[in-house]
Amino acid sequence: MKFFLDTANVEEIKRIHSLGLVDGVTTNPTIISREGRNFEEVIKEICSIVSGPVSAEVISLDAEGMVKEAREIAKWADNIVVKIPMTEEGLKATHILSQEGIKTNVTLIFSVAQGLMAAKAGATFISPFLGRLDDIGTPGIKLIEDLRTVLNNYGLKAEIIAASIRSLEHVEATAKVGAHIATIPGSLFPKLWSHPLTDNGIAQFMKDWESFKKEEA
Ligand code: G3P
Asked: What percent of the chain has pLDDT over 90?
């Protein structure tokens, strides 16, 4: 399973990248706005740190505008993926861009039908938002599981990025149902390698070692 970081914070990316755990990065206009930095500058910096796919989202709502923006964004680095919203215009843009060899990540997917449409239009990645589905009482994990089945049934090449991840349990569940990728907020990532019993165990080992050393002296 691949881990992407769902952040545009360069310090977070560097910290987790140094552990060899960052296979890619996803951003959206909200995430970019949090950094208060120039869009192009921050995306180029992220692309220079991470060799895997880095998603940068268009803001146009019409296919022509999306394609124009995407062609520009795609020039910023070799590992750029252009994020496109899941609309009719977005599908049209995805289809054009896939024919031009520009990688796309179709975002804001909330149903199996939407995921299937995006994959058929030529999306490289599809991003179902599981946390936002959970928020309205619909199990997000079921969508990820169903999408994986549908992609497998028809040999569709799009990879599933489980997005809108809010908890450790979300990450574990997406791994169990076969999401290709989980995109994880930087603030959540450290929870993946932590456990209170690990901390307690280390503290006990240290305490016992200190007592042993004192007895020895
Ligand atoms: O990758 C999409 C993700 O950033 C959305 O997360 O928490 O805003 O639903 P959230």
From this structure: 99
Task: Identify the active-site residue in 14, 44, 83, 157.
Answer: 83
Counting the structural domains of the chain, the total is: 1
- Report pLDDT digits (tens) over 32-71: 999 999 999 999 999 999 999 999 999 999 999 999 999 9
Render 85-147 in DSSP notation, one character per residue: ESSHHHHHHHHHHHHTT--EEEEEE-SHHHHHHHHHHT-SEEEEBHHHHHHTTS-HHHHHHHH
Instruction: For residue 153, give both structure tokens.
Output: 């049934």
Strand partners, 160: 126
Residue 13, CB-side half-sphere exposure with 13 Å CA sphere: 25
Structural domain containing residue 142: 2-216
Nearest atom in ligand 1 to the alpha carbon of residue 26 is 1
- CATH number for the domain spanning 208: value is 3.20.20.70
Q: Per residue in 61-91, pLDDT tens?
A: 999 999 999 999 999 999 999 999 999 999 9
Q: Ligand 1 pocket by C-beta < 6 Å: which residues?
A: 6, 26, 28, 127, 129, 131-132, 163-164, 183
Residue 151 is given by DSSP the state H
Site to probe by mutation for ligand 1, drawn from 3, 28, 170 as the one with most ligand atoms within 8 Å of Cβ, is: 28
Where residue 144 falls (left for φ over 0; alpha for ψ -120 to 50; beta otherwise) is alpha
